[in-house]
């Protein structure tokens, strides 16, 4: 029987580190090293490994992920595994999901424990990712599943996965939806298919993305926030280089009353998205009144981010702006997320 052809693209991250002379962990391992550390991969797939970069994911950029997506789109393989760091995995996987529309599994995986520690999780996560990419159910539903993240024997949708702890092995979860599948022994056990209409609709609106980077500011609303950074964004030359703003809003979509007027004025200058600082879940639209309520903010022109975590809302807004979408179209893209 012919084994599935799986491409492993390594970007760097904890999974690819090794100690330097001082004992500190530095990027050093390439894709071939990662594959060689897991001999069982040869029983599952015909692996072709390629080192794309050797950087921590905290240093990745939008342009690099756009280039990676173009590389994946051109591959003639049965599945793709991307290895990277965990710092921005929840963002990079979502961006790949927005950019790719393939009928093969595309999976992002990583490691929380570096290879110098006892029981590093990188080899196990890579093995699990390849096992998922080779699974018949996953392959049959690849387009419906979209880009996935595989960590600690669980499979997550890229649009929902979050890093919920900075250091623990079980650092990843999808609090709103739960995992798509789990691995037990040598089996992939399906649990659910994700709701994909918003992603599919966004892709149609985005079309071919060839524009320049469009930096998006991420501002967190909090107790008694006065809005000085908002004012600086509005009044500074070229808005400090930003082309849009995502606000991590309070509760169901609120801001401190003392900052409300500034934020409403900001929405008239730059595309401004409100997303729940609670981490996700559809926000309110027409429950509370008052000058800093969701009713007032929506009426003033803020774009509602739906169920998207602020980090993912920032990725989507940057992608929309890079594609040259206008404010009304951007609002329609976000509206589909609830």
Brief account:
With 338 residues, the protein is of the alpha/beta class. The chain is built from twelve helices and 16 strands.
Describe the structure.
By secondary structure, this protein is α/β, with parallel strands linked by helices. 32% of the residues lie in helices and 19% in strands. The strands form 4 sheets. Strands 4-1-5-6-7-8-11-12 form an 8-stranded mixed beta sheet, with helices on both faces. Strands 13-14-15-16 form a 4-stranded parallel beta sheet, covered by helices on one side. The chain has a two-stranded antiparallel ribbon with strand order 2-3. The longest helix has 13 residues, at 122-134. The protein is globular. The relative contact order is 0.11.
The number of distinct β-strands equals 16
Taking all residues together, what is the mean pLDDT? 96
Please outline the major beta sheet.
Answer: 8 strands, mixed
* Percent of residues in helices: 25-40%
Low-confidence stretches: none
Tell me the overall shape: globular
Order of helices and strands: EEEHEHEHEHHHEEEEEEHEHEHEHEHH
Classify the beta-strand content into a percent band. 15-25%
Radius of gyration: 21 Å
SSE topology sketch:
Blueprint: E1 5-10, E2 17-19, E3 25-27, H1 31-36, E4 46-51, H2 62-73, E5 79-83, H3 89-99, E6 106-109, H4 122-134, H5 136-140, H6 142-145, E7 148-151, E8 154-157, E9 162-163, E10 172-173, E11 181-184, E12 187-190, H7 197-206, E13 216-220, H8 228-235, E14 244-249, H9 257-267, E15 272-276, H10 294-299, E16 303-304, H11 310-322, H12 327-335
